[in-house]
Amino acid sequence: MKNRHSARAHRQLVPTDARSAGVSGAFALQVITEGSAHSAEPSFPGENAVPLWIKRRVLLLNVTYEPLTALPARRAVVLMTCGKADTVHEDPQAPVVHSEQWSVQVPSVIRLRNYVRVPYRARVPMTRAALMHRDRFRCAYCGAKAETVDHVVPRSRGGGHSWENCVACCAPCNHRKADKLLSELGWTLRASLVPPSGPHWRLLASTKDLHPSWMPYLGEGAA
């Protein structure tokens, strides 16, 4: 396999039948990293190390720009080479993935070419990541940087593990509060506790690291 494209001069080509000419199974891919146009990184299992680009996540948007999910980079590249999605935001720091027939830089955001109907979504699951996003990574009691999750009504006193009873909390407040009620401490919450809603919250509930280019599509909850 020849490296015909450099990391600084690449283009996405219309994929041809990569399974012809003696190639069977999945497309044979190589990765060219910035500043190393002649050194290829193995892309699939069977090698000793998993390439870093495989671990990247790419935001997938519906044709309406509604956020759908965070895809593994490999899946995003497959959608693009099959003509099912287009790049919305490039990532200058991302590697270039290429084969004999095409070359593309791993993007940060892609958009489907055809509309996908999203089924009715039930209540957003409460995860640590989603809770931190809802409370903007600030302690619900003092406003300091949040480090833990606290139950407003302690579980030992009948409190549930739900959006309406859990808050982001700093370590000092968590320690001071212990198993006490807010009324016993004279504390108040900085904001009312409501479950979040919106198409982007399901993604926030399952994704810890967000690329800066995703923010315009994820609403206020990602700020």
From TrEMBL:
Superkingdom of origin: Bacteria
Every HNH nuclease domain range: 126-175
InterPro entries documented for this protein: HNH_5, HNH_nuc, NA-targeting_endonuclease
Protein's UniProt name: HNH nuclease domain-containing protein
Transmembrane segments: none
Organism of provenance: Rhodococcus wratislaviensis NBRC 100605
Pfam families hit by this protein: HNH_5
